[in-house]
Amino acid sequence: MRLRKEHGVKEKLEEYKDLVVFLEESKKMKFEGLFNNDNPIKAEFGIGKGRFIIEMAKRNPDINYIGIELRDQVLLKAVKKADDEKIANVKFLVANIENITDIFEENSLDGLYLNFSDPWPKKRHFKRRLTYREFISKYNVILKEDSWIRFKTDNISLFQFTLNELAELRVIMKEISLDVHEDDGFVDNIMTEYEEKFSKKGNKIMSVTFMPHR
Ligand SMILES: C[S@@+](CC[C@H](N)C(=O)[O-])C[C@H]1O[C@@H](n2cnc3c(N)ncnc32)[C@H](O)[C@@H]1O
Fold first, then answer.
1. For position 26, what pLDDT does the model report?
2. Which CATH code of 3.30.420.40, 3.40.50.150, 3.10.129.10, 3.40.640.10 fits the domain covering 12-20+32-211?
3. How far is the CA of 167 from the centre of ligand 1 (A)?
């Protein structure tokens, strides 16, 4: 997603105090008072313009959601959408997933979504893929026991890489789909922005749901 660098994005994000979390340096995210309830908290990493997480929040008012995105300019689009639609059970944070164990406490999340993560096709960049084993090990730390991660992509190489990482880590997998849009198990599927773009080109959408290793 190419965007011309916009100035003052941080200041614009600061206008949405109810929706955007700003962490103090070297402080982790505090859940007390964040949503004013004890409902489960699920996250999406790399939300892009936020269509998925906002729709999840609308469909599941008894679950809280946290959307994380590296690029503040992109996140601002998601924040504006959530503000327009007056969604109360979603919060947003600008962060690099590399630092995720500095952001969340151990055993704090109830589920995680990774949608159309950047494929990093060059072999020498494989450690940047969000399903590289070191990332999965970090997710293991911050997720509560028995919680699931769902990964979706149209990228065959990234899907294969991910399955191999999961096999290497001996994680428990369930619900592997090679064609989410034709699969009965995915009737409630929410199309992300990238999913719409790539499925229009005729690409099949694949998914795996797994529990990180313990
Ligand atoms: C290909 S886009 C997919 C966006 C959205 N999930 C969708 O399916 O439409 C990947 C997104 O992940 C973000 N991203 C990539 N690496 C990241 C990282 N290390 N930390 C946080 N976000 C990241 C990118 O900025 C981009 O917005």
1. 79
2. 3.40.50.150
3. 24
CA 209 from centre of chain: 13
CA–centroid distance, residue 43 to ligand 1 (Å): 13
Q: Which parts of the chain have pLDDT scores under 70?
A: 1-4, 213-214
* Distances from the Cα of 16 to the Cα of 33, 34, 56, 137, 189, angstroms: 17, 14, 20, 32, 29
What pLDDT sits at residue 214? 60
46: Cβ below 6 Å to ligand 1? yes
Quick check: 58 and 35 in contact, CB under 8 A?
no
CA of 74 to the centre of ligand 1 (A): 9
Identify which of 3, 74, 75, 116 to mutate to test ligand 1's pocket (most ligand atoms within 8 A of the CB). 116
Q: Which protein residue's CA is at the shortest distance from atom 24 of ligand 1?
A: 46
The domain segmentation of the chain, as residue ranges, is: 12-20+32-211
